[in-house]
Amino acid sequence: MGFFDKIRNGLKKTKENIGETFDSVLAVFRQVDEELLEELEDALILADIGAQTASETIEELRGLAKRQNIETKEQLTEALCQILAGKMAPNCGLKLDTKPSVILVIGVNGVGKTTTIGKLGQKLTAQGKKVLFAAADTFRAAAADQLAVWADRCGADIVRHSEGADPAAVIFDALTAAKARGTDVVICDTAGRLHNKANLMNELAKIDRVIQRELPGADRETLLVLDAVTGQNALVQAEQFNQAADLTGLVITKLDGTAKGGVAINVSARLGAPIKFIGVGESADDLLEFDPAQFVQAFFES
Hints:
Strand order of the largest sheet: 3-2-4-1-5-6-7-8
Helix content: 40-55%
Number of helices: 12
Number of strands: 8
Order of helices and strands: HHHHHEHEHEHEHEHEHEEH
Oligomer: single chain
Low-confidence stretches: none
Shape: elongated
Largest sheet: 8 strands, mixed
């Protein structure tokens, strides 16, 4: 299955959610008037694109329709796709040029952090990189065991401590091991807690200090993993984590299992952060590098 087909299939439930509404709005195309624009805005909100992003999108569409004299359904859809894609931050991929580089993966429990780490590790080892997993989620039972399964599957090293250990100590030992072993990329799992934001911020700040001290000048990606199934709650999580960490990108998981795929557009637009990867299935190949234009095209393609 091709890249675009995977995105399209992954958005199947979202397309079904808004397809009837969107198609009914454009079924009998007429001039781009206020009634049509209002109906389109409602359709975007139903797709979990968010009220503010939907409103801004329609405002831009209103101006574009006048300037370009849009007269057909195809022209309108193309303009809408162009605007939505432009609202998302461009994805320039992962910057992992130093040896070692670090990927810090954060997010609440249940969003798919550990699975995302495993899939990233599999992608990187397939590229010939030597990968080490740091099992710094020491609070969730069996988190390290799950990560060890992925490490074995993709041929990555792993550093782990006992349950309840200091996460920063795990990161320290992982970075020490990475330097000694000639590791290319260290991927760090972290505990997913938001109930006490002060603890979260303190823990991430401590981990940050360890990385800065042990690998000054190293390339680092801080990826926030969000579950698309949670819809607009994903935006709330993203805003809170963005206050606690210097995010370099987002990973949106479980897009194939939800009708709320539009949240990906909204989160990127509101945070100004690029989506690096999206998850549209269970296999490692279903973690796809994100392309805003292709995503939006698949989102609206009939």
